[in-house]
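W.,

You were right to be curious about this one. When I first looked at the sequence I had no strong expectations either way, so I just let the prediction run and decided to look at it fresh. Below is the sequence, 97 residues in total, followed by the output.
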Amino acid sequence: MRSFKIPFEEKIEDKIIGGILTIKQFLIILIIPIIAIGLSFLIKLPLLISVIFVLISLIIAFLFAFLKINEDTLTKYLFRIIKFTKKEKLIKYRRFE
């Protein structure tokens, strides 16, 4: 009978790029600054403002790629916050005697 190895952790993604980054992290770090560079050239910002804009976007990209809150990535955490705030809530009041 054939046997297969079952991983213990299903939430862990494979670190493919250099053993450090997952594909998702690599794409986030690559795409967000490229979009920022494209926007800075499209809007024709001065060089200093453009560099600051790209550095801020790079910091945001690193936050989205590596920051974990309660073992969830920042994107999942933000989606949960949005979902919670948009959801209709039922509030029950009761008197304490």
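Here's what jumped out at me. Strands lie at 68-69, 72-73. And, maybe more interesting for your project: The two ends are 66 Å apart (CA to CA).

Coffee later to discuss?

I.
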